[in-house]
Amino acid sequence: MQKLLILLQCFIITTFSATAQTAANSHVQQYTTDNGLPSNGIKGLQWDEKTGFLWMATEAGIVRFNGVDFKSYTKENMPSIASERMLFIVRNNAGRIYLSDQPGNIFFINKNMPALWKHAAVNNSINPYIRNYFLLGVSDVFFKKKADSPISPSYATGFNKIVCISDTSCLIQNNSSLLYFSISLKKPIALPFEKGGVSNIFKINNSCFISNGKKDIFLLNMVDMSLSPVIITEETGKTFIPKTSNSLLYWQTGMKNPVFVDGDRAWQLVYDGTKITAKLIFTGIPADTYIKSVQYSEKNQLLFIGTESKGLIVINQNRVQSKRRNDVNSKNRNSYYSQIELSNGNILTNESDIIGDNSNANNILPIKGKFSFNITHTDENLLWYTQLNRSVGYHCLYQYNKVTGITKVYPKIKWGDIITASGTEIYLANSIGIGILDTDSLRFLYNYPKELAGVVTFDFTEISKGILGVATCSGLLRFNTATHQLDTLFTKENICVRSIWKYKDYVFFGTYGSGFYIYKDGKIKSMPLDKNKYLLYTHCFVPDNNGYCWISTNRGLFKASLSEIVNAFEKNIPAVYYHYFGKKDGMEMTELNGGCTPCALRLSNNNISFPTMDGLLWVNPEKAIPILPEGEIFIDEILVDNIAVDPDSLQYKSLPAQTQEIIIELGFSAWCNKENIYLDYQLNDTTVWKAVNTDNAAFIRLGGLRSGTYTLRIRKLNGFGKDNYSYKTIQFSIATPWYKQWWFYALIAAAILGMFILIYRIRVNQLELNQRKLEKQVAEKTEELLQKNNTLEKNNSINNRLISIISHDIITPLKFLNVAGKNLLEKKSVMPEELKDETIKEITTTSKELQLLSTNILNWIKYQNENRRLVKEQFYMQEMLNQVFGILNSMAHQKNLQLISHVEPALTVIQYFEALKILIYNLITNAIHFSENGSITVNARETEKKIIISVSDEGVGMTSDQIKNIMADQFIVSSANMDNKKGNGLGYLIIKDLLKMLNATISINSEKGKGTTVYVELPK
């Protein structure tokens, strides 16, 4: 079984080692892992003519090739693939393509992509279909019938050829034997041919052939299994004889014709009912290539070769021919411009090189040596050119007569002339102006003005009767031969007009950098360009006999339909199909030359010869049949935010509302040059088409889409012809997000209404709250104003009292001091000593009282300032008391009073030092004032929350009414005597203000005639 599994990894076609030489009539392109092929090991090939795809079974999965890009199907993007090592790829009698991976999963090709057809058994190491794989080359019905049969015969796909008779019967070549097998048989039946007599079996169309060991070919009659000998000939009728010993024939089910490979050549075998003809299709198959599989597209003339280890080789017929000189001549340039066709079909170039396929032995050269870029044929027999005349030392005009073979020299007409004919006259244009040939001289009809002096003329031809067109770097000029007037038809800054061609009533002219234009009836229109804008540098226009125009450029050659170009001019159609020919078509140099006459040469055999930067380019319009970009557009994959979506189900479901990006990958056949792929799309639009970039695969990216239904239209230009497009339409929709649903808008409206109501209620509540706050503030301010008013009234009352005190208790004593001092001064000589002493004593007492009164007034005023900032301090009570005693000791001593402190030295107080000091000062001062003898005692004690200070005296004391008056809030400051003691009450006013500041309370304990004790309680 293991041996059989290994055999299954081979192709249906027997392999051989091929040697090759450089291609002569074909272009060879090899694809490996270096340029996009996923694996260099090709297990099998199948060409699908309907879709234009080449399918490959590789060791890296299933691979599809469209001529430009490889599309791989692996476990990553196709989970049904269990192993990326493919066993084989085969096409059955109905044209359906099947593949299998190593575990036994069978896939079929569904147009543009593989799909799982049969799943291998799970957890089974044995491939369940290994014995019946060969039947996949017949039909799926045959395979299914025998798939589960334990007695089915086993033949290795790859070493046993299958020839389908019908969907239910086939022939099997097993080694050198031939067997018949049908769906009704349990096992194949050996056919009665000579043992070992079958070496190969193949079909051409519906006819079956076998060959024997002697390489004889026989037609097999499927009815009676009889054999009829058939000969193989070349197209010339000669017997076909292989040139090498290792030549082999490649054929497998699904191929219409076999391909015979011999060395570097490949033939297609065709059968006309009597004989087999070997048609040479390609040369140049690479050498040292171990071929595993061959497929051929007759329609596109493409040969596909799958190799064991060197990847894929694609060979296509050259549609154009690059021609170079055979000898090496370092004195001549490879770049050519003007050309002359010789009688044998060869080309004489302006570099004097002869290029062509024919012998040069009998060439009669019209020109010997190099000649100018511009030559002209007039009267069919006259050839005009410019060449160096060594006898005169400069270039001058020459005329060659083809009939007589005589060359005439015009030494008076120097270098730089382009000739054209109009009527019977010969006209010339050079850098000076336009003239007419007058015998052997040039007679100028028009001299260029100063701004055109020195202008270079690239083309000069008659565009209508008597009207000559002049192509210059100053534009397209028009010269009237009758009036000798010159005007400008077209001009564009820094753009040279380099070629002119008249087609019917249309004048085509090409520019260097601005494309090509058409002039008709006074109108000039710029024509559409190709997708890569190579036509910006248009060199030449050459018509063929099939209604096409061949246009040369700096980057390659184009073929376009003249009717399409004219239609685009007349109807302002924005696009024309220009088919591009490049390197893949046999063009070794894509930079063609222009700025010469003729810009290309139409040969007598209707071939066209274009000058290039390296040789000539020959085109046979009848054989240069292009591969057109025709075919269906397929959707390979659709990614919605990088998640794959089934393209077939996309229109039946809505995409999420949050969709950010949709990527559509397109599949299409592209065996033409990539320059010929024109893909466009439009989204919900019926007028504007956007181009799809096909440089690296083909993706359409759609982003920023809103909710709604979309129609994506894709079109591909299939080649020449009006509206020759393939179309693909994709419909999809993006769900409306929840925040755009009708119920959401209703909810929003309700929410807005509720919000307005809420805002209204909040605003009303705020206004009510603000009103209450304002009312409260008004009440507070009113209360504050009342308090301030009361305070002002109180202060006013106090101020009035102060004024009264000052006017009575200060001014009156001062008057006394003035009078007493004056009397003492004036009457001291008559006054007795006792009176003098008494007067002096009264003066001293009065001044002392004034001092105390003034001090109290100042202290009171100072602490009336509410903005005064005080800082609490920590101090010893005894130290503060010592300062007060130091001030009042002399005053107490005068009255024989003793100041006593019972305060603990360690007692500390945290309070406003100055305020408390003034408070104690006033209490002691009052005690001194109302005491005549005894002592004044100060006590201080500390409790848990308070400090209690007391001042006791042995003075006159107070009645309860007096105490009540002092403690009252509306304490009236009075200067009335208290028991005949002078007092103004200001001291207690100061004391009460200081109590508020200190947050302290006061209480008085007094008895008339026994003294007074005042208590002050301070918070700690």
User: What is the CATH homologous superfamily assignment of the largest domain?
Assistant: YVTN repeat-like/Quinoprotein amine dehydrogenase
Name the poorly predicted regions.
Answer: 1-23, 972-980
Could you give a short account of the major beta sheet? 5 strands, antiparallel
Q: Classify the fold: give the CATH topology of the largest domain.
A: Methylamine Dehydrogenase, Chain H
Task: Please state the structural category.
Answer: alpha+beta
Rg from C-alpha positions? 62 Å
| Count of discrete alpha- or pi-helical segments spanning 4 or more residues | 9
Strand order of the largest sheet: 1-24-25-26-2
CATH class of the largest domain: Mainly Beta
**Helix content, binned percent:** 10-25%
* Overall pLDDT metric: 88
Oligomer: single chain
Q: What is the CA–CA distance across the termini?
A: 110 Å
Written account of the structure:
- This protein is α+β, with helices and mostly antiparallel strands and 1020 residues long.
- It has 5 domains: 2-317, Methylamine Dehydrogenase, Chain H (7 Propeller), CATH 2.130.10; 322-619, YVTN repeat-like/Quinoprotein amine dehydrogenase (Methylamine Dehydrogenase, Chain H), CATH 2.130.10; 634-737, Immunoglobulins (Immunoglobulin-like, Sandwich); 741-858; 870-1019, 2-Layer Sandwich (Heat Shock Protein 90).
- The chain has 9 helices and 69 strands.
- Strand 66 and strand 67 form a beta hairpin.
- The radius of gyration is 62 Å and the shape is elongated.
